[in-house]
Amino acid sequence: MDDTPNSQELFLFLASTAHDMKNSISVLSGTLERLLVDTSPETSVQAGSAYPHMAHMLYQTKRLNDNLMQLLALYKQVGKPAYPFDVQPLDLGQLVEQVAAIERVLLQSRGIRLELDYDPGLIWHFDEDLVVGVLSHAINNAIHYTGDRVRLAIRETDGWLELRIEDNGPGYPPALLKAGEIAARGTAGGVNFLTNSTGLGLYFSSEVAKMHRHRGRHGSLRLENGGQYGGGCFILRLP
Amino acid sequence: MSAAPPSSTPPVPVTPAKADQVDWAGKHYLVVDDFVGVRQLLRESLRSLGARNIDQASSGGEAMGLLARVRYDVVLCDYNLGEGKNGQQVLEEARVRNLVNPSTVWLMVSAEKSVESVMGAAEHQPDAYLIKPITEGVLLSRLNRVWHKKQVFRMIDQAYAEKDYLRAARLCDAQIEVSKVHELDLLRMKARLMEKSGQPTRAREVYERVLEQREYQWARAGLAKIRLANGEFEQARQAFQGVIAENRYYIDAYDQLALAYQNMGKLEEACAILERAAKLSPNAVLRQRNLGNIALKLDNLPMADKAFRKCVSIGEYSIMKTPDAYLGMARVCGRKSDPKEALQWLLLAQREFGQEHPDIQLRAKITEGLVYHESGDFRRARKAGDELEAMLNASGERPDIPTCLELATLLFAVGVKDAPVELLCYVIRNNHDNPLLLDEVQAIFDKARMQEEGVAMIRASKKEAADLMNQGVLLWKTGKLAEAVAWMRDARKSVPNNQRILFNAAQIMVSHLQQQGYDAALSGEAYEILAHVDYLLPGQQRFAQLMEQLAQLQPAADGSGAATAAPAPS
Question: Per residue in B122-141, pLDDT tens?
C-alpha cells in the first residue's frame, strides 16, 4: 500500500467497515452454532427439516467469513513486508485443537467425520492466524465436496512440515488442478486463480505458503487427487 | 489463583493434563465490546463453559470503572471500542494502576490481524490476540493455552516484579529444560533480564542462540540494541534498518533507529523515521512526544506543532499522558512569537499535572523563561529567572540532571549568577565520576564566561563527593561496619543522587546484614537505596548483583532464619 492520503483514507474506511461486518458475521455464525448444538435432529421432530438448512447456512456464513478475511488480508498485501506477519513457535497439538474447534459444529451438523493424524508434541514455526485460516478454509471446502469424511494429516519430512487435507469426494476438477500446478511453480502471480471465487481461497493460501521462509526456502501449495481416500488432497508445505 | 501448583523453587513441568483441570466456571469475567451482539455472544460462550460471574462493558471508560472495583480473572477486550479509550489503552491503564493481577488472563479481540500484535514493544502486551469470529471451542482452547503459559512464567514474573533479575534468569534456564514449546519465549525473557542486569554480553549470547534456530526479528533487534548501547551507532543503524526491511510493522525498531540517528547527530533522519513510525502506529503518546521534541530541535515548527497536539489529544484517553507535550506546545508558540498562547499551555500543564508531577511548576517556569528569552523579551525572561531562583532557594528538591543543565543555561543567559552555579555544583557532587557530564558542565560555565571559576568549582565539588565516599569505604574496610553504615547514611543525605555513593551505601549495608545478622529495617533501607539508583539509571550490573544478595538474605517464609553463607570478613 502506498502512503498517499487517499489510500490511507480508503484503508481506514475499509478497516472500520470490516470491523463492523466481522461483528455481524460473528453474531451470525455464533448464533447458528448455538442453534445447531441445541437442536439435534433426533431430539426434536419439527427441527428435523430446519436442521440441514441451518447447517448449510453455517457453511455459507463460514465461506463469507473466509472470503472477507482473505480479501482483507490480500488488501493488506499478504506476501509482502507490508503485512503484519508474525511467526511464533507452536506445537501441532495447539494448532490442530484450534482448527478442530473452529470446524466442530459444522462437521457435526453435516454428519462428517474429521480424522486426525499428527504428532501433538511436534513444534513448528509459523504465523498461527494465517495457517489456521488456510486450514479451516480448506476443511470448509472439503466438507462441501466430500462424501462422509475429511482427514487432516500433518508430518515432518526432510525439514518440511507437510499439512494435508484429504476427502473422499469426487476430487478436484482438472481446471483447478491445473491452477494448483501454476501456484506450485509460483510464476504466474496467481492470476489464473482469480477466475472464480474458489480461486480467491487458493490464491490466498499460496501467498500464505510463500510468505513462510526459512534458510532460503519458502512454503508452497499443491492440489492433487488421490490420497488415502481417493478424493481431493490440499497440501500445504512449510519450511 | 486457586489451581496454582505449590510455590516451590524448582520448576514444575506443566503437562496438558493439568491445563484441562482449570476451573473456568469459577472465574470472574469481564467482556468489553461496543457491539451488543458480540457481548451477548461471548457471554453465552462463557456460560457454556459454566461461568456464572460475567460483567460487561460497552466502552473503555465503563471498563475502567469496573476494573477499578472488581479483580477479574479473565478480561476479553475488543481492541476497537469506538469513541474514547481503545482496548490497548484500557490494558495499559489497568496494568499501570495495578487494577489487574499478574495472574489475570487478558485476551485482546479484534476484527482482523492487528499491527499492534507484532509491534515488538514488549511492555503491556495482552496474553493473546484473538481474531473474530470467536467460537466457543477456540475460546476455551486459547484460555487453556494462556493459563498454561502463565504457569510456566509464574515464578519468573514474580522474581521480575521483585527486580531480582538474576534469580529470574536462573528460573528461565530451569524452565527451558522442561517446557520446550516455550523455549523461545523463555530465551527472550532471559535476554531481557540480562540487559536489565547490565550484562549485554550474556544477552547477546541468548539472541545468537535464538538466531541459530530461526530468523526472529526480535532477536535481530535485540542484538542491534546492544550495539546501540555500546556506542556502535552505525552498525546499530544498519541492523535496525534490516529489521524494518524484513517486517515493516516492527515499530520498536523505528524508535530505536531514531535513537541511533540522534546519537550520530543526524536529527533530520531521526525525525523522518519517527514520522514514519507515527504514521503506522499513531496512538503512542511517547512516540509523538519524541517526534515533537526532535522537530522542535530542528525548528520544524509545523511538525512539532502537529506531534505535540496529537500527543495531547491521544493522551486524553491514555495513562501515558505526559506534561512534556504541553511544555512542547508552549515552546512552539514561543518560537512563533505568540507568548500569550504559550502561557496558556503552561497554565493548562500545571492544572492537568499538578498532582502527579510535583516539579511541574518549576518546569513550567523554566519553559516560560525559555519562551521569553527566545522571543527576545529580555525583561520578562529576567523576571522568570529571578522567580526560578526564588523557587530553588525555597526548596531543597532539585529536578533531574537534564532539567538542571537546561535551567542553569537559561539562568546564566538571563543574567542570574548564584543559582546556576549552585545548581551546577549540585550536578557535579552527584555525578563526580561521570567525565562526559563534567565536560558538559564545564561547557556551560565557558559559555557564561566563567571558565576559570568553573574549573575550580568542578574540582572542589568532585573532591567533596570523593571524600565522602572514601571515608565510608575506609571505615568499612577497617571493619568498623556500624560506623560505615552511619557515615554512608549521612553521605546519602548530602548527595542524594550520587550513584557511586548510593551503590556503596547499599553494599556496606549488605555486608552488615551478612556479618551481623538480618535486620528488617536495615534491609528495607538498602532496598530503598537500590530502588532509587535503579530509578536514576536502570539496567546496571551492580544493581542486579546487590538485589540478588539482598533477596538471599531475607529470612525464609517459615521463619527458619536468614540464609547463611556470610562471607568471612576480610
Answer: 568 899 999 888 888 889 99
